[in-house]
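Reviewers of the previous submission asked for a worked example of the structure-prediction workflow described in the proposal, so we include one complete record here. The input consisted solely of the amino acid sequence. No template or homolog information was supplied to the procedure at any stage.
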Amino acid sequence: MTFAIILLALIVVCFMFFIGIYNALVGLRNRVKNSWSQIDVQLKRRHDLIPNLMETVKGYMKHENETFVKVTEARAKAMNAGSGSVKDISAAESELSGSLAKLLLTVENYPELKANQNFLALQEELTSTENKIAFSRQAYNDDVMTYNNKTEMFPSNIVAGMFNFAKSDFFEIEDKAEKQAPKVSFN
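From that input alone, the workflow returned the following structure tokens.
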């Protein structure tokens, strides 16, 4: 009788341990999804700001049509990547960031535009949004790391394998130029 009680207690403890691991994995997976949603909200905000920025800049930069086309195409590509994989979205957003950076660099040649209040307000909004995107990406990658560690470490990897908890992808910069530190020169 004592052996049966000990065996039953051991089975209950193992079952509770199994449930705890499963619940932890579900919680971590949901954190990753929530973090991704936060990035998505900020990306939508950036996508919404770009047309206003473009309209403000167009009046001043009539002969910079190629730059406008690249930003517009990159924005469309980024918006269409929204239902793709993290890698696809990351690549599209990197392309958009690059084309926006080129646009803002071109603005340097137009002092009257740099002084325009609408442009300054939009530029501040875009800068603020970019900072929020960077923070959201960092939080997402932290959550992905925690989740992936849990799915790969023993004994939770056994439960993860049984219930198909797949690894999540990190939000990475694919453009090698974006990884380079900017060069500052005072010459």
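The first helix runs from residue 2 to 58. We consider this example representative of the routine output the project will generate in years two and three.
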